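User: I'm writing a short methods note and want a consistent example. For Enoyl-CoA hydratase/isomerase family protein, I'll paste the sequence; you return only the structure tokens, no commentary, since I'll be parsing the reply automatically.
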Amino acid sequence: MTQSQTGTLVDYERDGEIVTLTLNRPDKLNAFNDELVGALSDALHRFDMEDEAQIAIITGRGRAFSSGADVKQRQLRSREEFLRLGGPQGRGTHSADLLTRSVNWKPVIAAPHGYVLGLSVGIVLECDLIVAEEGTRFQITETSRGLGAGRYWGIMQFRGGGAFAMEAAFAGRYFTAEEALAANLINRVAPKGRYLDMARELARDVVKNPPLSVRSTVRTRRWYMDRMTREIMHQTAPERLYLSEDFQEAARAFTEKRKPAKFKGR
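Assistant:
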């Protein structure tokens, strides 16, 4: 049985036991504003609560999985807003909560293509399995924006990224799906146009197993991942880098489509 809901910020489609969640803000390259984070949270909760659904795939509509955080909304807030919210995220829209507040601990596959930037790198790496289209380009943009990449470094280390995780976090350079596969960050690289097909093949392999057995492993994995990332965020929170001059300059330069001025370390 197939069920679908389209025309929303996150389209929801269930085909038997497999749910596909499609980020649907293609005109903005699926940039995550507070509303899109909230919509994905709602869609994941619906998947978690739906008895027939056993596994979900997250993908993006258009040219990219996601260009990351919506800079104009989440990174150009006033100082007063940053202080009140405790960071760039809006109230109740912290992306780190998306996959770690489950009840039934069902597995989630990320199926990215095009670009995976900034905030969306975290969402992809926090998924249980990852199938990326060949040539997909990843970038931890937090490094160049002055926010720090500690959480992303930690997730990459958790997935086995080793020395590559250090380079990706420190340099903030683009890296490809092929590099990510070689560094053990993702599970599979799919030929052009076949990343969803391959993700669904992997999903069918997973759902052949007793669901409670699979969920037990998901729960264990996410518990350890969440503990590690919460420790990192607790350690870095007092820095409040979102209040620094360098962060403000980097965010303004991005929206004004210019090179940032020389960073001052303050």
